[in-house]
């Protein structure tokens, strides 16, 4: 135990750099190993401390790790690993990721010239800057537009479909949902508490914004008071790609709860074609009958497609057929 303690004490002083204070143990106590001996746990016993000192790297020597780090998640890659990779040197001489200059130029163009002259992929890049701060997002912006067609399609994409695109993350999904919520609230503000007939274009615009690019059918009702002012806007049903269940009694009951005098009903066709089906016409007539029995008028039924909409009132489909 005494020899081990002295050896440990000597080695600790050696590691701390106080080599002058080290008194090397007598060679007789720790004979040098034979040249043919291989140091190991069983073959040669404990190595001499002078051999341990010889194995230490010289002061100031940089050692390389014996392993290579795995690439990190794609929104945290080193700039040199991103698309186009590498660094650039700024006017002040500092080294920056290659995409920083592109982001600054894009922001400046947007602030000085607005969005009109910018292609859609650049507008989408601006949006993705906050979601993915550390890599070049232009390739992702172009992939999203190629997958979903346009900005409306990208913003309205479902979480499942969006995350299938290479490079899209949960943060991208969240950013798009925030943008969609802002757009809906801004459109809705132009409709609520306003008279429908005098703001019909705003009503149609609102319905397009909220429903044109949905991937499943949705049935909405705008409830109006006696002055045709919108007092509520509610989704009454969610469906599949080609069907949404509608319950006329539930719609009429909700109208009574809100003291509504009239309704504007709206649903979308994910196929993009607003042509009404036989089921659409039958459902409209049943709604007219259920609400009419309570003195509630249905002004119109709008079907929203991707590029246009259809009005039952304008095409003469409101109140023209009886119900068997």
From TrEMBL:
Superkingdom in the source lineage: Bacteria
- Domain (MPN): give its ranges: 196-318
Any GO BP: proteolysis
Pfam families to which the protein is assigned, alphabetical? RadC
Family matches, as SUPFAM superfamilies: JAB1/MPN domain, RuvA domain 2-like
Record keywords: Membrane included? no
Which InterPro entries did the record assign? MPN, RadC_JAB, RuvA_2-like, UPF0758, UPF0758_CS
Task: Show the segment(s) annotated as Disordered.
Answer: 41-98
Which keywords does this chain's UniProt record carry?
Hydrolase, Metal-binding, Metalloprotease, Protease, Zinc
- Tagged with keyword Protease: yes
One GO MF term attached to the UniProt entry: metal ion binding
Q: PANTHER family given for it?
A: DNA REPAIR PROTEIN RADC, UPF0758 PROTEIN YEES-RELATED
Q: Which family does it belong to?
A: Belongs to the UPF0758 family.
Question: What NCBIfam families is this protein classified in?
Answer: PRK00024.1, radc
| Protein name as annotated | DNA repair protein RadC
Origin organism of this chain?
Jannaschia seosinensis
């Amino acid at each position: 135990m005494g020899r081990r303690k002295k050896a440990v004490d000597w080695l600790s002083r050696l590691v701390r750099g106080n080599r002058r204070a080290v008194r090397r143990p007598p060679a007789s106590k720790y004979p040098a190993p034979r040249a043919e001996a291989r140091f190991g746990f069983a073959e040669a016993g404990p190595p001499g401390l002078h051999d341990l000192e010889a194995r230490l790297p010289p002061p100031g020597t940089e050692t390389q790790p014996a392993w290579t780090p795995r690439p990190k998640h794609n929104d945290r890659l080193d700039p040199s690993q991103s698309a186009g990779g590498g660094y650039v040197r700024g006017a002040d001489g500092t080294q920056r990721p290659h995409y920083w200059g592109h982001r600054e130029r894009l922001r400046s163009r947007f602030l000085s010239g607005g969005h009109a002259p910018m292609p859609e992929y650049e507008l989408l890049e601006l949006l993705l800057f906050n979601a993915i701060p550390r890599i070049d997002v232009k390739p992702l912006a172009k992939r999203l537009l190629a997958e979903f067609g346009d900005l409306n399609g990208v913003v309205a994409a479902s979480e499942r479909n969006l995350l299938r695109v290479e490079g899209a993350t949960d943060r991208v999904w969240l950013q798009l949902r925030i943008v969609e919520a802002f757009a809906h609230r801004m459109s809705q503000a132009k409709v609520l508490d306003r008279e429908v007939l005098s703001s019909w274009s705003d009503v149609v615009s609102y319905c397009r914004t909220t429903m044109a690019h949905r991937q499943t059918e949705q049935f909405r009702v705008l409830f109006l008071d006696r002055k045709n002012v919108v007092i509520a806007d509610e989704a009454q049903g969610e469906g599949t790609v080609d069907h949404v269940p509608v319950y006329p009694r539930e719609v009429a009951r909700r109208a009574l709860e809100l003291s509504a005098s009239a309704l504007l009903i709206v649903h979308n066709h994910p196929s993009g074609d607003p042509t009404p089906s036989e089921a659409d016409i039958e459902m409209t007539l049943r709604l007219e009958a259920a609400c009419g029995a309570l003195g509630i008028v249905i002004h119109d039924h709008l079907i929203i497609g991707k590029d246009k909409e259809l009005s039952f009132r304008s095409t003469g489909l409101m109140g023209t057929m009886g119900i068997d």
